[in-house]
Amino acid sequence: MEGTVKCAANYVPLTPISFLERSAVVYRERVSVVYGSVRFTWGETRERCVRLASALSVLGVSRGDVVAALAPNIPAMYELHFGVPMAGAVLCALNIRLDSAMVSVLLRHSEAKVIFVDYQFIGIAKGAFDILSAKGFKLPTLILIAECDPKQLSITSSTFSSSAIGSLEYESFLETGKLDFQIVRPKDEWDPIALNYTSGTTSSPKGVVYSHRGAYLNSLSTVLLNGMGLTPVYLWTLPMFHCNGWCFTWGVAAQGGTSICLRAVSAKTVFDNIVEHHMTHMCGAPTVLNTLINASVEERKPLPETFGPGTVCTWKPEWNSLPREEQAKIKSRQGVHHSGMEEVDVKDPITMKSVPADAKTIGEVMFRGNPVMSGYLKNLKATKEAFEGGWFRTGDLAVKHADNYMELKDRSKDIIISGGRKH
After folding, report:
1. At residue 64, what are phi and psi to the nearest 5 degrees?
2. CATH topology (fold) of 311-411
């Protein structure tokens, strides 16, 4: 239209790099990555990614070059999702379940200039290098990722020998990078950011190219689809090498969230991390969900059993004029059920009568509606107990205020059990 102009003031190519840049400012001191005893803030993560991009540039990596990675869900793998594109390069995250022969095929096909390899997969990488060498192909530069959790060093110290296939190590490599490095942003949002290979179950593996624009939009779509609010806590049970973790690698950054990294998934580690870090989101393939369902009694931890949050403290405009202290008290309440939940109430667990709305009488929070679980797999007895009286008994104890907003007070573990009944 007349009078409009496309320029640097109103048009910038979309890229997930901007998510990291913003979170490093807004959430600078907030924890971005957790891995065992290792913690990084968003400020530190940005600095590490800038150093990574700078070091790659010094190594000769430039716009459009492919950088491969063979690593599980560890901090380095998360940083590669930003550091590689910040160097203008394309990240090729390889499936850690591949054998040496297939890795050699993908390295050759992608023409990767560099490959980052976690110590656990050095054997696979060495086998791939042997195959490539035998065929006369040029080998990519290998950078070894050692264990970064000090508590695991005794386990990993004798697992690998970096001198066997290379002398570069990840943390040392980062130290060669400069913080004043000029980040390489895409000239066009159609520029590639990632290369992912299909499994090749019906034919040879195909390389799937992601653009900066596609990654940016899909990351935001993933956040919206999964109801990710600000500062979520995401547990990495989904492999980051799988479609770049469904773009959660970048999506979590968009919301200033915290990534809880897991080298390996087991029922115990999942339950422990959910409880310890107050996790808000995770993605579970059927195998992961079956692992949790079939966990031993010792491994399990008590968790909420509705599909998601069942209540919300819906704010009312008239509360805006109240003193801040009073607003804080109201905001701390769990409130009322959301639109998808049919009904919520605070009841006497024996008589099943609603407790009076006097903000004093304690009862058990109970739900009724479609978001409530279908039941406990292969445990009909526990399912019937949870649904006794036609309500899902949460085990949470609460009071109701005069406006029927509820406020949690305790858990039913502290209720006296007499004759099989809760008191």
Report:
1. 90, -10
2. Luciferase; domain 3 (2.30.38)
**Residue burial 209-221, b: 16+ Cβ < 10 Å; e: rest:** ebbbbbbbebbbe
pLDDT tens digits, 61-105: 999 999 999 999 999 999 999 999 999 999 999 999 999 999 999
Q: Which ranges in the chain are annotated with CATH 2.30.38.10?
A: 311-411
Distance, CA of 287 to CA of 274 (rounded, Å): 18
Q: How many angstroms separate the CA atoms of 16 and 18, rounded?
A: 5
Burial pattern 177-188, b for ≥16 Cβ within 10 A else e, equals: beeebebbbbee
Q: Where in the chain is the domain with CATH 3.40.50.12780?
A: 16-148+163-262
> What's 16-148+163-262's CATH class?
alpha beta
CA distance 96 to 103: 9
CB count in 10 Å sphere of residue 417: 10
Query: DSSP 3-state assignment of 109?
Result: helix
Residues 144 and 236: their CA atoms lie apart, in Å, by: 22
